[in-house]
Design a protein that fits this description.
221 residues, alpha+beta, Umud Fragment, subunit A, four-stranded antiparallel β-sheet, 26% helix, hydrolase, serine-type endopeptidase activity, Peptidase_S26, EC 3.4.21.89, protease
Length: 221
């Protein structure tokens, strides 16, 4: 006996179109979610790469090209004040030695490290005497090879006397511009050239003093 003969309605046929639409919708949603996930992964990967490259560049610049430093003491007044921020240029001394008048940042020499200064505790002074030159201080004047050094950049004339000393090879005689309040070569001796970190090149703070630091002021020697 057929279903019609039993008085029952036949079961409805499955609507294949409805089934396909549901499947397509689910597939599109899953595909969209996957695309979003891939897109975010790419953004994250790109950002990580960007940060990595930026850090690498910053490290290369800091170790080989330039690095920021601040002035912790008044030894370079009036040229540089406590709290001034500088960029220290580290390239030029790889190709040429420091010049007289350069303001250099350097690691403490062995004689200072013996008194407890850390090798990482940088100093900043001005180059006065070069290898082979004789330096002396008398009657408020600095003399290089018995010639008076013209120094318009110092705070005041030195009040101490220093007998003539000859700067050894591969060494420098450095002094602070604040001659009477500076722990420099007149106190602890000569600076090995190899201890030079770089040259004070640019002051970027405070804003009213932003500008290049004079490399080699005029003098008659």
């Amino acid at each position: 006996m057929s279903i019609e003969e039993k008085g029952l309605e036949p079961a409805p046929a499955v609507n294949s179109e409805v089934g396909n639409e549901a499947t397509d919708k689910a597939f599109k949603e899953a595909n969209s979610s996957t695309v979003r996930s891939i897109r975010w992964q790419k953004i994250l990967t790109d950002n990580v790469r960007l940060v990595t490259v930026a850090l690498a560049i910053a490290l290369v610049v800091r170790f080989f090209i330039a690095e920021p430093r601040y002035i912790p003491s008044p030894s370079m007044v009036p040229t540089l004040a406590v709290g001034d921020r500088l960029l220290v240029e580290k390239v030029s001394y790889r190709f040429e030695p420091p010049h007289r008048g350069d303001i250099i940042v350097f690691e403490p020499p062995p004689q200072l490290q013996e008194y407890g200064y850390s090798a990482s505790q940088a100093f900043i002074k001005r180059v006065i005497g070069l290898p082979g030159e004789t330096v002396k201080v008398t009657q408020g004047q600095v003399f290089i090879n018995n010639e008076s050094l013209s120094e318009s950049y110092i705070l005041e004339s030195p009040v101490y006397e220093m007998p003539p000393v000859r700067v050894p090879a591969s060494s420098l005689f450095v002094m602070g511009d604040n001659r009477n309040d500076s722990n420099d070569s007149h106190v602890w001796g000569f600076l090995p050239v190899e201890n030079a970190i770089g040259r004070a090149a640019f002051r970027f703070w405070p804003l009213e003093k932003v500008g290049w630091v004079a490399k080699n002021p005029r003098n008659p020697i």
